[in-house]
Fold these 2 entries.
Entry 1:
Amino acid sequence: MSYTLEREDLADLARGAALLGTGGGGDPYIGRLLVEQALREGDGKITVLDPSDLRDDDLVIPTAQMGAPTVVVEKIPHGDEPVAALRALEERLGRRADATMPIECGGINSMIPLLVAARTGLPVVDADGMGRAFPELQMETFSVYGVPGSPLAIGGENGETVIIDTGADNKRMEWLARGVTIRLGGVAHIAEYAMSGAEVRRTAVPNTLTLGLRIGRALRTARERHGDFIEALAGALEGSGYDNIRVLFRGKVVDVERRTVGGFARGHATFAAFDGPERLELTFQNENLVARVDGEVRCVVPDLICVLEAETGEPITTEGLRYGQRAVVVGISTPELMRTPEALAVFGPRAFGLDVEFEPVERLVSP
Amino acid sequence: MSYTLEREDLADLARGAALLGTGGGGDPYIGRLLVEQALREGDGKITVLDPSDLRDDDLVIPTAQMGAPTVVVEKIPHGDEPVAALRALEERLGRRADATMPIECGGINSMIPLLVAARTGLPVVDADGMGRAFPELQMETFSVYGVPGSPLAIGGENGETVIIDTGADNKRMEWLARGVTIRLGGVAHIAEYAMSGAEVRRTAVPNTLTLGLRIGRALRTARERHGDFIEALAGALEGSGYDNIRVLFRGKVVDVERRTVGGFARGHATFAAFDGPERLELTFQNENLVARVDGEVRCVVPDLICVLEAETGEPITTEGLRYGQRAVVVGISTPELMRTPEALAVFGPRAFGLDVEFEPVERLVSP
């Protein structure tokens, strides 16, 4: 179902996107402010387009921010950059876009296509290429199922544009785009994986904007009513394909090690249990990759590992992790599209250099 | 005067270009082999076009290699890359080139446009944008006198292309292109500073290919006749605008410190005099930047500092410097076009972070 996104929806969507970002994707707060500003300046409406409402030959150009989340919180975009990237790619392709779309539904990248929509009047397709957030551009269902990411356009803060074309090699595209992003100061805005409406339906994870909105609403409502936010979250996920939720740990952050290296935020966080000697160790590269309790894997990428504030249920991103925070760590299963052998080859644990086999969270942890 | 370059000229041109490279620009030997191969495969002729023979509205697209000379000697191009860069830029501009041109007359970049010419049939303009070699892309007389370097096209070894557009900001263009070059393994091929025939005549250093050829011939002839190669060099430079030559030092290499950092070969070399306690210290960033004898500046960029083998007069590049080499270090004055305040602001000593004022070599050292 297509619908109009209201300004009042943005805070809920940002909250849900922070959860789907599994610690990464960049804090959606800044993105939300940019969208609100664009809505105030424009006609105040964003159309969310159901993938089934796309024509087969519509041109969809996804837009996004790329960079280390640790930099994103310090280097605020002025808002023209993703539109400049879109326009540069349109010029290269010799055709105007009929819609934009998120490449990932987690973090700030749920907001960037809304910003583009608010500024250009284009609709936003209710789907994405990660079903969560991942740190690298080849880690897209678009790529897994055969859509080339090239040509990719980058828009910089001073009006620079860069077009990268690596043919069908999306990993090489990521490598070069990351190099440019580092040189632009650690954050840049991109347009890539231009595709037809038919390709969206074949390769994208559907209705993830709406899922983010539903999750954000459920978490807020639970808080307002002093209800159980884990239960509310389970309710919001029901029937979405993200069907299993497991509490992995309840405890306090006792250590965070975080470095911005090679254009990524990499590191570890350790949590000590509230009521026992157990410890959970979280490893991340922008996003949370693996959660181990006393050395045993409890949840691993691409399943979602989400850290929520223990009192409020508010998602905490990796760059927001602080000593002393009280948190609940939950694992959430991802849709089957993201767990096929082809998908795991691109964004399973080994793609991140982890010496771990993928095992579904619903089998690793009992309900 | 326009003329046809013969295959037999290439060794002399490479030798002269190594001298004009002032230690950098990349060893022209590999470039020469690529040009010879292309000539064998094609129709065997390269037209060297005098700038005065260009029409005002001809489109000239300079082509070059960029990267650290220390990498260039290990990572041999297959020869398609600069043509791919040229074609990518033509496509972006929507117009075919009428000629190519060197961006620098020193080192391998005297050869890359010849390679493009041999492969495409385009003529090569007998001029360049540095009158020597410099390490960075904004250090061009083209840039000094108002030609934008953007859009710049990069061709990688796997057929990747990257287009960078930073408007009038040529320093930013260099910064981004260097980042991409590092990601491509430290060496890449580029097309940039597309300009009209009229702009070539206004901004380029004229007839530097021919000068390189003349220098290379003079050095070879002196060696064959057991003559004085310094005298021969002075003769070749006469009337070229590079009118003053000074012997700065005669001695042995006693120390070389060289690192490949930030995409450049940076370092120092120390020479001990044959006949006394004096030492010459050479500082380089790809190219030789400043020569000091016992702490006193004897020659500084943009004047040429050239290291020649003491016995043969063969130029030695920075990546070729070895302990124990016996050498003559000479300083050569550059044309007035390269010594104006505008030019010195872009490629004078302070542009390299050196705390030295420019002083012409003919005033620093007596004949």
Entry 2:
Amino acid sequence: IICVPARLVPQVMQDCAIKKVKGVSIISAGFGEADSKGRKLQEEFLRIAKKAGIRILGPNCLGILYPPQHLNASFAPFLPFSGKVTFISQSGALLDSVIDWSVKDNYGFSAMISYGNKSDLDAPDFIAWAAKDPYTKVITLYVEGFSDGRYFLEMAKKVTPIKPIVALKAGRTATGSRAVSSHTGSLAGSYQIYKGVFKQSGVIMADTLTQMFDMARALAYQPLAKGNRLAIVTNGGGSGVMCADYCEELAIELPVLPRELIEKLDKSGKMHPAWSRGNPLDLVGDAGPERYEVALEAVMGSEVYDGAIVIQAVQTSTQPLRNAGILVEVQEKYKKPIIGAFMGGVISEASIKYLQEHGIPNYDDVDRAARAMWVLMECGRHYRRRKL
Amino acid sequence: IICVPARLVPQVMQDCAIKKVKGVSIISAGFGEADSKGRKLQEEFLRIAKKAGIRILGPNCLGILYPPQHLNASFAPFLPFSGKVTFISQSGALLDSVIDWSVKDNYGFSAMISYGNKSDLDAPDFIAWAAKDPYTKVITLYVEGFSDGRYFLEMAKKVTPIKPIVALKAGRTATGSRAVSSHTGSLAGSYQIYKGVFKQSGVIMADTLTQMFDMARALAYQPLAKGNRLAIVTNGGGSGVMCADYCEELAIELPVLPRELIEKLDKSGKMHPAWSRGNPLDLVGDAGPERYEVALEAVMGSEVYDGAIVIQAVQTSTQPLRNAGILVEVQEKYKKPIIGAFMGGVISEASIKYLQEHGIPNYDDVDRAARAMWVLMECGRHYRRRKL
């Protein structure tokens, strides 16, 4: 790890060559991104490194964090929690903010890599590494521009059948891509081309940072869906309707409840007389845990559904913690994906924590829950296609 | 406030008529939404009320909450904080969840109204009330279907030039609107028609619950923008680029920095040599409060910009609380809107609280900040048009 002033870096690189160091991470800034003097310094240390076979991360980067091994080889002030998501970021500032956010939001990472000027190693190299990392289940990527689009395409094609990649591309518009040029000196390239590359290689595109980590959380903790037929179980009619809207917009199917399933639930003696007998399966506002249990058991056990979104609006009879327990149990029993949409707040806080700790991703807003389920279906499709 | 079993409600209504009660709120359920027996009961108490000139909220609703006067005339377990946003909701369950969330998120409301079966009073009546309420600055509305679209259109047209209305319509898709029918017995209607009605009356449409309350927060606490020319000030290049992308997608202009402004900042002695000299105005990662101050002063004082989004990625030299103070001061000085995009987390938490308490809305993700600024510009346009 090199963090001496830029002008001293070539000398340190020379020392590394003598000591037969295999890889270095250069935190120092003031190279290719700064001025012509910096560019020359970068060329100089690169020449030395190439000759000695040294691979380089950076310069002008935050470094590497590897929470499963408690390694913080970066200038970030603290480590995030250990998790199953690797985050590869062209922007160091963004990585810093994400760490700060993740600790507050209880979001875990298996690795975080800020690659700065990518003078040698680039995003595809880190993707290749993450594909082999035993702690990583999902790879997330913030990228402004690629040096070598073809290399990325080849690598991503190899990796996505093994581990999903979710990418956020900045500089998608004319204004944004002008800002990229002024910011990093690299070209953002046409977003249409990126879209094509991502699609061809099975990379999932996110529109926002929140969306990227939302989808990664689902992929990290839930199984992929075997089809796109969803059941929505809810104790709030309105939230159920909104969820159905978002699902239709994402081409998720909501098959009607089969007649035998309606009869079974009617006979259970647990349902409210006014329950919806449809999908969304509305348990009615005063639903206690028994109703959640019998309904969720029914849809998850049915051949008609590939997964479920369970909505909880906190109401007088709601028992958030017991409901959370039911989601965890039923998911373990049927091995199909369940996504929680327990609306967050003071009362529901403990139940949401319970869900997340037991591998059920939960989202405040039903549109985020629908998007999380969509990615499990989309990646499921991708894997099945690759298998054929 | 009536909360006796449904079958007793007509009798209570009779008693109210004798006592010359002017208005009642019926919390009880089991009427029009339940079965034919319930429908008859509803017709019965309506007949009595009409004859006696009694206006009715509900039945089958959560009731009314009025935090500025500490009034909780609902079956929600607690009051939200007092604020400037009225929330009118067709769904009681949603209202319940929103209260729970708002307390955790420090989001204040001037009033919350759940109107259930709308046997008499409907959304437009509550909008008319909120337009006159001294505590309300913004009206938010969750709606599944209108009984009388023309009445809504007329009322909204009158109110939007005085107070902005932000609406979330559920049942926008075929699946969603089928769910509305099964849920409330009312028709959702074509979303295209709703869109037309909203647009014609100057109502802002939200896609999600989060988006609705995000926009309402901006409208409640910041002045409207006088044009759509925005400056982005940031200490993170990547976040600046993403913000520029979202702005372009929302047709927000990002004028380049005027030459005299660049010279002024260059001469200030406060800027990093590598600052962007563009818009986004990138202060570079090690920016302290002095840089934020001189840059924000410059753009807010310039005739070229109608407002600013200020992004803060927490980095080693970042001083979140001092930065927050600068936003508040500069906003008060120039009276143009400022939106914060301080990425939330453990380190930035106190500064975000400071911003919110001093009237600067803050959003975790730059896309939400861009959307909040957009609504200040959009409503500004609407008001100017009405004034002409």
